[in-house]
UniProtKB/TrEMBL annotation:
Keywords assigned: Amino-acid transport, ATP-binding, Cell membrane, Membrane, Nucleotide-binding, Translocase, Transport
Keyword Electron transport carried by entry: no
Domain ABC transporter: start-end pairs: 2-241
Name of the gene encoding the protein in the UniProt record: metN
Protein name: Methionine import ATP-binding protein MetN
Naturally occurring in which organism (per UniProt): Asanoa siamensis
An MF annotation (GO) of this entry: ATP binding
Pfam families cross-referenced by the UniProt entry: ABC_tran, NIL
Coiled coil region boundaries: none
Length: 324
């Protein structure tokens, strides 16, 4: 659905060139929620603006729904952007317009007739849970309600793709949760492909199917969340499952086990192999609706003596790392 190939974007200034996006390749599959995670200044926002060509890349191509946007003339690009919704960090609502007026604005620009426009606005406000706030002005809305209006407005043109620029960073945790739940619901009900940028690990944990980690304009790690969690050296896994350094224990095998959706692993291991398993450390999280965890286990005896138990773990777990 979205394919980014070799995209570069450099800002030139008297102090020297700054390469905000440094040769990024990224593929977002149709119907998934893809997160780009990174600290402030990593280049995330610039990358997102390159997707709808609000920022024109200095090099590389951006293809959305099979169309290379960089080849389009301005009129065709404007039409293509109507199929790409955008949610902003600070809502970007027109203060002089009601909630309904803000949602109607892009429909007016598209030339949608008044009666059809009114029906579409009512449908969208109901969809985001604000059917009873159509006549409220932004100053009369909470932060979460403002963002719901922003989401409804982004959906006005019936886009296939939704871009989210730190959509929850200005919200409190409870409101963040409700907005993320709404985005996941819209993703599933409308078949939306969502590309979001965030600096919050909680956003990735809550709704992302895939993720890319961005540092200094480059993607350092990317892939489906469950595949990255299976890699012991994954930065994402280290960020989600914060385990300390493994202890050195005499006559003991220390092993880190990553599991997804299995809460019987330890009891099955102990029962099958009659081994006294100790949990030294661990973290369990709910990720995009499913549970995953990384446990640090201690098995009495050497790795050779525990070969059968380790084989059991490798067969049942997503990833197993035996510490020397």
């Amino acid at each position: 659905m979205i394919r980014i190939d070799g995209v570069r974007r450099t800002y030139r200034s008297r102090g020297g060139d700054v390469e905000a996006v440094a040769g990024v390749d990224l593929t977002v599959r149709a119907g998934e929620i893809y997160g780009v995670l990174g600290r402030s200044g990593a280049g995330k926002s610039t990358l997102l603006r390159c997707v709808n060509l609000l920022e024109r890349p200095d090099a590389g191509t951006v293809t959305v729904d099979g169309v290379d946007l960089s080849t389009l003339r301005e009129a065709d690009l404007r039409a293509a952007r109507q199929r790409i919704g955008m949610i902003h960090q600070h809502f970007a609502l027109l203060s002089s317009r009601t909630a309904a007026g803000n949602v109607a604005f892009p429909l007016e620009v598209m030339g949608v007739p008044r009666r059809q426009r009114a029906a579409r606005v009512a449908e969208l406000l109901d969809l985001v849970g604000l059917g009873d706030r159509a006549d409220a002005y932004p100053a009369q809305l909470s932060g979460g309600q403002k963002q719901r209006v922003g989401i409804a407005r982004a959906l006005a043109g019936e886009p296939k793709v939704l871009l989210s620029d730190e959509a929850t960073s200005a919200l409190d945790p409870e409101t963040t949760g409700s907005i993320l739940t709404l985005l996941r619901d819209l993703n599933q009900r409308l078949g939306l492909t969502i590309l979001l940028i965030t600096h919050e690990m909680e956003v990735v944990k809550r709704i992302c199917d895939s993720v890319a980690i961005m540092t200094d304009g480059r993607i350092t790690e990317a892939g489906p969340v469950h595949e990255l969690l299976a890699k012991p050296d994954s930065a994402l896994a280290r960020g989600i499952f914060r385990l300390g350094p493994p202890p050195a224990l005499d006559d003991t095998t220390v092993v880190d086990v990553t599991v997804v959706g299995d809460d019987t692993l330890i009891s099955d291991l102990a029962r099958t192999h009659d081994v006294d398993v100790r949990i030294l450390d661990g973290a369990v999280e709910t990720l995009a609706g499913g549970r995953a965890g990384r446990l640090r286990l201690a098995l009495p005896g050497t790795a050779a003596a525990n070969a059968a138990a380790l084989d059991h773990l490798r067969a049942a777990a997503v990833a197993v790392e035996v510490h020397p």
